Amino acid sequence: MPATYLITGGAGFIGSHLAEALLASGERVLVVDDLSTGRLQNIEHLKRFPGFECVVDTVMNRALMAGLVGRADYVLHLAAAVGVRLVVESPVRAIETNVRGTEIVLELANRRKQPVFITSTSEVYGKTSRVPFAEDDDLVLGPTTRGRWSYACSKALDEFLGIAYFHESGLPVVIGRLFNTVGPRQRGRYGMVLPNFVKQALAGSPITVYGDGMQSRCFAYVGDVVPAIVRLIQSEAAYGGVFNIGSDQEISIRELAELVKRRLESPSDIVSIPYEEAYRVGFEDMRRRVPDTRKAFELVGFEARTPLTEIIDRVAEYYRVAV
Ligand code: UDP
Predict the structure, then answer these.
(1) Nearest atom, ligand 1, residue 190 CA
(2) Is 239 a catalytic site residue?
(3) For residues 192 and 190, what is the distance between their CA atoms, to the nearest angstrom?
């Protein structure tokens, strides 16, 4: 018997890949997405699966969500205000979506105790400089006057709430802290670096490195991340736990710009943009961000295997045909 997975934010970048993988393995998928950052083009090709259904609405529509959660065997909660730019530009919406949406999902799933995967983020580690980040490390957030930290704080609250439901009500909740995840369908509009660089390189326009470019990140391919999420929500041993999901291969943003340029044989110049020009005032960037992924590896065999060069090729392939 196929199981039914409700994917909130299922028309988004990661959500659409999850939907695709689940449908391909014979499961049924219900997507709810308000198309704030998700796109119908991301799931167009899934309509041919009889087990696929999509509702365009917000997770804050409680009455609708009661019906959808009621039909689900598993809930993958990805709907959120994502991307640094969106969070800095629309902080009220970002905080409310991230907190209230999760409250509604957890409260409804608690009625029949369906397992819930809560998508959290490496942002919750804040500006701690001790890498790699392990799940039990302290979270070091900046002041509330700096908008960026509201995202981390709202996601940390989601984690607290999920873990509280697990302990208080026995709701099977698993939390995944996603580090920089990349691949086709990720859009650059909300500040994500790799799609921006690839688009710039393909267009021959300047590749914009913010700040000194010595800040670093680790990029995991969405195709490696998705099976880990599916295995985590199905693993009883994961419930009540927090898991880092990401690559541990660190690269500076300047090196990334150079790699994209080289790989795509682009004539683009690499230019430095001061942070004040790139973001609004109140922004603080993270210097390094490296996950310790042993926990997810030991429980569900998670490994970010796909090399960055291959990821760049696939993202470029997407942008060559995407509109
Ligand atoms: N970045 C950049 N150029 C861009 C977009 C982003 O140099 O066009 C930098 C950004 O300042 C950050 C890094 O790339 O240091 C990763 O940014 P992204 O928004 O992708 O992810 P996050 O900051 O959440 O890790």
Answers:
(1) 19
(2) no
(3) 6
- 202-253 confidence digits (pLDDT tens): 999 999 999 999 999 999 999 999 999 999 999 999 999 999 999 999 999 9
48 within 8 A of 27, measured Cβ to Cβ: no
> Cα–Cα distance between 123 and 82 in angstroms, integer?
11
Distances 15 to 39, 142, 163, 263, 287 between C-alpha atoms, Å: 11, 29, 22, 28, 28
pLDDT level of residue 281 (50, 70, 90 thresholds): low
Looking from the CA of residue 275, the nearest atom of ligand 1 is 11
First-to-last alpha carbon distance for the chain, in angstroms, is: 38
CB of 122 closer than 6 angstroms to any ligand 1 atom:
no
Q: Which tokens belong to 117?
A: 């995967």
Radius of gyration of the chain (CA): 19
| Residue bearing tokens 């898991």 | 243
Instruction: Using the mean position of ligand 1's atoms as its centre, give its distance from the Cα of residue 252 in Å.
Output: 10
Cβ(210) – ligand 1 distance below 6 Å: yes
Distance CA 269, CA 206 (A): 5
Q: Is the pLDDT of residue 147 over 90?
A: no
> pLDDT digits over 32-70, tens only?
999 999 999 999 999 999 999 999 999 999 999 999 999
Strands 270-273 and 207-210: parallel
The CA 166 to ligand 1 mean position distance, Å, reads 34
Question: Which pTM was predicted?
Answer: 0.96
User: 118 and 229 in contact (C-beta within 8 Å)?
Assistant: no
Per-residue pLDDT tens over the stretch 86-104:
777 888 988 999 999 999 9
